[in-house]
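Translate sequence into structure tokens.
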Amino acid sequence: MKATILLIVMMALIMACNKDFLDKKSSSSIVIPQTVSDFRAMLENVIVYQSTGALGQLASDEYYYLNKSGWQAATTATERQSYIWGKDVFGGDVAVKDWNDPYSAIFYANNVLDGLATLKDSIGNTEFNFVKGWAYFVRAYEYYDLVRNFSPAYDSATYSSDLGVPLKLHSGIDNNEARSSVKDCFDRILEDVGASIRLLPAQYPSGHPNQPSKSAAYGLLARIFLYMRVYDKAYSYADSALSLHDTLIDYNTLNANSNYPFANDNVESIYTTSQVLKYTATVVGNNSRMIAVDSNLLRAYESNDLRLNVYFRTRTYNNVTMRGGYYGTGLYPYTGLSVDEMFLIRAEGAARLGYMNIAVDDLNKLLYKRYRTGTYGPRIFADKDSLLSAILMERRKELIWRGLRWSDLKRLNREGANITLTRNLDGEMYRLEANSPNYVFNIPSDEIALSGITQNVRN
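Result follows.
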């Protein structure tokens, strides 16, 4: 973490700022923000918008390499080692963006929060509240991303002793922070999201889905509580998010022949962000001959399910890949918060709580918009278990390539799902057992060397 901050501190206050901010500063004070607008400009930064780690996507079961030579040709050691769940997931790679970029975004958020605290005359005005709420939201979003990747799955029986990540809550860079517990990390995350809800507007500013809102904050809480397996709160917060933003796209209106069927202003998006710009294997619209979407998952889609053509296309090598991004022409996986995710969280929460009618209604509302007109008939379920199983399968089918599957595997295996993953590279088999320590990624070696924090243990 300290290594990350040292690399960005000298450029953070310059590169984050827009042209107007730079133009109005003299050369002697160019990096000193002085107004709420200046601090807002710090958050309007590509590192904030594209900082979700990709390791879970690389390690998940949503795709496979067609052969060993394709795997060997992967751009980075991280892509190769994460695919086979290697003991050192980075294979010697340094300056790892999956660790560095979230901490960079946190650094910006902390600078904004510390800076706003000095602007006594602006406290309480609309822009001040929005920027402060935005900074709290970013910090929570990034710490959740870090802890779900670099810490064990949330478990209230062990969370006080399980190692989380270092919590940096101020803009200074002098102190090395030890790793906090998973409990302390989640306590901080939930506190920050709560603070953002009190400050943010109901909807994101017009034309800016990459800026948060109350709907996004409720959605983030729904996602977090689902991962924590606190299903009553996941249900409640998904319901709160949908009360503010519940528009679903009718997939019959999309052009399934387009490379990018979704618009940049996707109306289902509640908060738009994406994975770090790093790994070839995670690119949507990937036209390489190396990878393909998991064939077992593809077989789960029915013939009248429009997602088959909207999400996927067959390449010349006869491998099926993702057609395009969930937010238009973006090349890296959408990892933001969306209406379809909220419907599925609310449905799963309702099913687990025994609210069968609500769960079935949510599932039918979503799927009605996903099937060819006139071909979808409302589903009926005999019991809770069959309903929950259907919701979880639709979650896989709907939210593919969104960076969510790895977290789902971690939480579902803690529920006793006993999901085992396998890889086959020209007959050489690799296996990841449920609840394996390899579900927790290494902390990059250069970070360990500089800060001395405790490393994760993998097999």
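Note: The mean pLDDT is 91.
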